[in-house]
Backbone:
């Protein structure tokens, strides 16, 4: 049992969980999946294709004939983490194929690790398969190698990420994701629904909808309708809400049409939860970021959302110490937080990223000031979280069980996404529970980020 740390990085997916050891003599591939949930979905797709070709999936280096490292290039610190992971895989296994966001910079990777077998970019599934075939030829056994209809999952069986689009049309100066993953490419709505239906049929209790820009879903294909489903986030959310699973929306930009999602939350079709990357609140900082600069209107939108759905949980991420950020601009962010009263908050200290336009901006903030502002920001966010959770003591809420050990059942409420938010712990009478159970719990204790409760 562990409690939620206050500085948990909001760009990380749950740690990949590998199951189903290989049969004797079966060629086997290991997978190290770094970065965000979108990268984790890419890892699942790669392994699903490999399983269909007769490969096993190894949970450790020793049992793998080769290892795929799916990298992250979100920040320079994430790039360094990716290089470390590649180096570890080379040291422990020796046969390494690199893919993912950092794969868009092959010279950067091979300059540090010239012995990698191949480097491919993000969502280049065919190239990854070609590299695996060259390194470890397939040897399928049609009588033994059966692929489940739901494919290979790297998350616990009771929840799954559902990627609805790839790429992004925004041009934020601090971000190079559009350069690596391209412009918005939405999946057809009927294909998303078919995948969601299969997941629910396989026992998934929670669908986490992800993309680079969820609220822009379908813009690139003119919200096309096909086979009874329209490619618009409001229509898709409504359709997903009919499947009987929890539906959680991530990475939603606060466009005006987002307000149409809130009645679906009030009606229980999707979870009353919005993950919105506000990034800052001062209009001048937002302008330097090349983001919409209407923080006051955002407060009006938040108030309107809460009027429609009082139980809505709002999560966001912010950047402190952006180039040129003054003390007054930072104070505006703190004051905005006092008004917005967001439920769940993550925060980055600004970092230069190779290729980002923000690198060229003047007046970069010294490291010690960035750290001091991060401490102040997270202190305020923690105080808001603590007060909001204390107000839940005595209430009866629904939770989903994520993990059970000898000390407690670790659960999440509708207000908590896996890994990036808090937990609810049941430490008495939990022996008969199972992972994936959805329960009614009375909250009897609250901390800074987590809750404790008892079964009702």
Residues:
């Amino acid at each position: 049992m562990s409690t939620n740390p206050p500085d948990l990085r909001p760009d990380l997916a749950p740690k990949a969980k590998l199951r189903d050891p290989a049969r004797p003599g079966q060629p086997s591939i290991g997978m190290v999946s770094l970065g965000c949930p979108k990268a984790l979905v890419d890892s699942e797709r790669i392994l699903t294709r490999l399983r269909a070709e007769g490969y096993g999936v190894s949970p450790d280096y020793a049992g793998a004939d080769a290892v795929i490292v799916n990298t992250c290039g979100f920040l320079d610190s994430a790039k360094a983490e990716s290089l470390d992971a590649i180096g570890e895989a080379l040291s422990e296994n020796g046969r390494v194929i690199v893919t993912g966001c950092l794969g868009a910079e092959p010279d950067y990777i091979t300059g540090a690790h010239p012995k990698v077998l191949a480097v491919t970019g993000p969502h280049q599934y065919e190239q990854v398969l070609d590299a695996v075939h060259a390194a470890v030829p397939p040897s399928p056994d049609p009588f033994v190698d059966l692929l489940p209809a739901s494919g290979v999952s790297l998350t616990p069986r009771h929840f799954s990420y559902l990627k609805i689009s790839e790429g992004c049309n925004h041009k934020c100066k601090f971000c190079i994701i559009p350069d690596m993953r391209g412009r918005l490419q939405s999946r057809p709505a009927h294909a998303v629904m078919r995948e969601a239906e299969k997941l629910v049929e396989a026992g998934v209790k929670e669908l986490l909808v992800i993309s680079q820009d969820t609220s822009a879903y379908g813009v690139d294909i003119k919200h096309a309708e096909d086979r009874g489903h329209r490619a618009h986030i409001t229509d898709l959310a409504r359709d997903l809400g009919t499947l009987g699973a929890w539906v959680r929306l991530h990475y939603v930009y606060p466009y005006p049409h987002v307000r149409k999602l809130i009645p679906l939350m009030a009606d229980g079709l999707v979870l009353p939860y919005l993950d919105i990357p506000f990034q800052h609140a001062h209009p001048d900082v937002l302008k330097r970021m090349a983001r919409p600069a209407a923080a006051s209107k955002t407060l009006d939108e938040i108030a309107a959302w809460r009027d429609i759905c009082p139980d809505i949980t709002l999560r966001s991420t912010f950047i402190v110490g952006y180039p040129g950020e003054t003390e007054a601009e930072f104070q505006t962010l703190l004051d905005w937080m006092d008004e917005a009263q967001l439920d769940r908050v993550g925060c980055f200290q600004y970092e230069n990223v190779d290729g980002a336009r923000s690198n060229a901006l003047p007046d970069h903030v010294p490291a010690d000031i960035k750290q001091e502002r991060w401490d102040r920001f997270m202190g305020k966010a923690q105080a808001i979280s603590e007060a909001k959770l204390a107000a839940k003591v005595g209430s009866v809420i629904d939770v989903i069980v994520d993990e059970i050990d000898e000390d407690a059942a670790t659960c999440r409420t509708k207000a908590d996404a896996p890994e990036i938010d808090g937990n609810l712990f049941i430490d008495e009478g939990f022996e008969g529970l199972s992972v994936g159970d959805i329960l009614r719990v009375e909250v009897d204790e609250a901390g800074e980020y987590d809750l404790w409760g008892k079964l009702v």
Q: What stands out?
A: Residues 6-10, 143-149 have pLDDT under 50 and may be disordered. Residues 367-390 form the longest helix (24 residues).
